[in-house]
Specification:
heterodimer, A: about 110 residues, mainly beta, 6-stranded mixed β-sheet, 11 strands, about 55% strand, B: about 110 residues, 7-stranded mixed β-sheet
């Protein structure tokens, strides 16, 4: 079992709709979680992080964390074609001080 | 502006050759990381460093080595390149801990024939 798992997609979303991405993690010692966006042929860039249970909103993005169920999600509201990218979920554990990435979910926003 | 650069951006080499990929950051970050990215595997950590003269193995370190002689640079060496090491390699840096935002370089696409 991978430490951080994501559905590889592609997740196809109409423009203006909500894209919902899920991520599960196996290590209960993971303390904080990150969402990186990666455009095709480019390097990953951080869009959000969350470390407390509940929701965290930043513009059109909302990260949700449920530590009891060991999942993290990312909602993209009012999806735009420019949101078409691969979204990488990552979990951080202080013991070892390392970030573990999932395989990424490819999102396609269709006009 | 501070940045992180990688060179070369593309490299084709033959099996058995030694290859070194360069990573240079001007953020003055203590932490530097090397990842490889393959389809279906996301980013996998190869080696990382928390400061000068510090190096640590990641989850896929076999066949790779790094050295850290200054804050700015963390070169990655493939001792004897294998076809299984064909991949895209990303270098990243962060300020203090790995959960501080990691800034990624543009990547190096390596092909081993």
């Amino acid at each position: 079992q991978k430490e951080v798992e994501q559905n590889s997609g592609p997740l196809s979303v109409p423009e203006g709709a909500i894209a919902s991405l899920n991520c599960t993690y196996s290590d209960r010692g993971s303390q904080s979680f990150f969402w990186y966006r990666q455009y095709s042929g480019k390097s990953p860039e951080l869009i959000m992080f969350i470390y407390s249970n509940g929701d965290k909103e930043d513009g059109r993005f909302t990260a949700q964390l449920n530590k009891a169920s060991q999942y993290v999600s990312l909602l993209i509201r009012d999806s735009q074609p420019s949101d078409s990218a691969t979204y990488l979920c990552a979990a951080y554990k202080a013991a070892g001080n390392k970030l573990t990435f999932g395989g990424g979910t490819r999102v396609l926003v269709k006009p | 502006d501070a940045e992180i650069t990688q060179s070369p951006r593309h490299k084709i080499t033959e099996t058995g050759r030694q290859v070194t990929l360069a990573c240079h950051q001007t953020w003055n970050h203590n932490n530097m990381f090397w990842y490889r990215q393959d389809l279906g595997h996301g980013l996998r950590l190869i080696h990382y460093s928390y400061g000068v003269h510090d190096t640590n193995k990641g989850e896929v370190s076999d066949g790779y080595s790094v050295s850290r002689s200054n804050t700015e640079d963390l070169p990655l060496t493939l001792e004897s390149a294998a076809s299984s090491q064909t991949s895209v390699y990303f270098c990243a840096s962060s300020r203090d801990r790995a959960d501080n935002e990691q800034f990624f370089g543009p990547g190096t696409r390596l092909t081993v024939l």
